Amino acid sequence: MSGALLVAGTTSDAGKSVLTAGLCRWLARRGVKVAPFKAQNMSLNSMVTSDGAEIGRAQYMQAQAAGVEPKAIMNPVLLKPGSDRRSQVVVLGRPVAEVDAMQYGAHKERLREVVAASLGQLRAEYDVVICEGAGSPAEINLRAGDITNMGLARAADLPVIVVGDIDRGGVFASLFGTVALLEPADQALIAGFVINKFRGAAELLAPGLDQLKALTGRPTLGVLPWKLGLYLDSEDTLALDAPRPDARAPYGRETLRVAVIRFPRISNFTDLDALSCEPGVAVRYAASPGDLADADLVVLPGTRATVNDLAWLRERGMADEVVRRAREGRPVLGVCGGFQMLAHEIVDEVESGAGRAEGLGLLPVRVTFERDKTLGRPSGTAYGEPVIAYEIHHGIAEVEGGEPFLDGCRTGSVWGTTWHGAMENDGFRRAFLADVAGVARRDFTAAPDVSFAALREATFDTLGDLVEEHLDTDAVWRLIERGVPGGLPVVPPGGPRPTDK
């Protein structure tokens, strides 16, 4: 078979990525060869495939949930914002242009062909493809050029499930309004709804589900319960605003407190997920000097705008606090863009065009931005432990001293590296945290039996369980196997609107 469906959402962060991963794990456990697909993704969280292609981190994660090798065709178009109006365009894993919002339209026809070819190739190679939309399909101002929501569904004749986040409030209005705003030909592909993040009495929800079906002619295929801790490779910073699991030990001398600076263009903040999994490690995101006051470790994470986010750090007064901490011998870690900020000099004619800029001067490093992007899956050792990581950067760091640390260096209590994902290596993570705890004079000892990979696999299985237990899987399978059911009614005011040419 060559079945497929599209998971759309009423909003960003409604649960599309998580449901897509759950459907992939559910199908994989049934022996189905399944692949994820997102035609166009706007995200600063990305990953490098084994053959050196850059794709959205969420699609990489979904492929892992499906038990298949991640490929560039699973996310053929990736947009990486560098400002509110400009983004780098990555096509089939390689950067091809830097455009503003209006210029991007000129690329759409070519990208539409790339998307169609990628989906076609996946459908030829796999039994089922679970597609994920972007944002909301009811963004009618963008419908004419859409290649990832209803534009994709129309082109490939995909049945569409719309996910709504009940925790935000107004879920029935969101689901009804999403359908009603679509033109009739788009409405004809909306096959049902899924309500996400429900907590409460199911009997109180049931009358609303009945009324929604009466109003739209479409069933609710399932109600997924609220589940704390399912923070799997989020696409955007909205996920940072959601409640996150607390450390499993109370604050005290045995708790290691980590403050991660939340840059405006923070990228690959999934680097810190492995720290959050450690018992006794409390991770929080910081946006002011006071947020750093009691931290044992301050992390400067990746960013898509190194020089501009460094200026933001200085404007906030946080740069002075980071420098003061480092000079007092308190631990600081920089990763990729954060590592570049720790250098004494940055020369950037590529990302910001700022030319020569002064870094924080905490590491003996000079950074020069190159036009060609470095994409790789490096490996090495640190603290006597093996490390497998990935790298995505334009800045080339020339290390001029200090102690070796992965591909970067360490000076006193300051560490820096361009390698993402290093903390996912259990032995290295434990050794690094032990070193930090010693410098910070904490009585913290990392748990010897925490496996990040095992925890991730357990989460995938939890997602598969949620799909099996709370979705009408027979109905979902019929959609995959048979496509869109006929005779779905039009929901007013769905009238003629601009469509794809």
UniProtKB/TrEMBL annotation:
Where is the CobQ/CobB/MinD/ParA nucleotide binding domain positioned along the sequence? 6-228
State the family named in the UniProt similarity comment for this chain.
Belongs to the CobB/CobQ family. CobQ subfamily.
Per the Swiss-Prot or TrEMBL record, the active site comprises: C336, H420
What does this gene product do?
A: Catalyzes amidations at positions B, D, E, and G on adenosylcobyrinic A,C-diamide. NH(2) groups are provided by glutamine, and one molecule of ATP is hydrogenolyzed for each amidation.
User: Mind telling me which PANTHER family this protein's record contains?
Assistant: COBYRIC ACID SYNTHASE, DETHIOBIOTIN SYNTHETASE
Output one GO MF annotation: catalytic activity
Give the Pfam families listed for this entry: CbiA, GATase_3
Question: What are the alphabetically sorted keywords of the record?
Answer: Cobalamin biosynthesis, Glutamine amidotransferase
* Residue span, CobB/CobQ-like glutamine amidotransferase domain: 257-427
Q: What is this protein called?
A: Cobyric acid synthase
* GO biological process: one example: cobalamin biosynthetic process
Q: NCBIfam families, per this entry?
A: cobQ, PRK00784.1
Looking up InterPro entries in the UniProt record yields: Class_I_gatase-like, CobQ/CobB/MinD/ParA_Nub-bd_dom, CobQ_GATase1, CobQ_N, CobQ_synth, GATase_3, P-loop_NTPase
Please give the pathway this protein is involved in: Cofactor biosynthesis; adenosylcobalamin biosynthesis
Fetch the HAMAP family from UniProt. CobQ
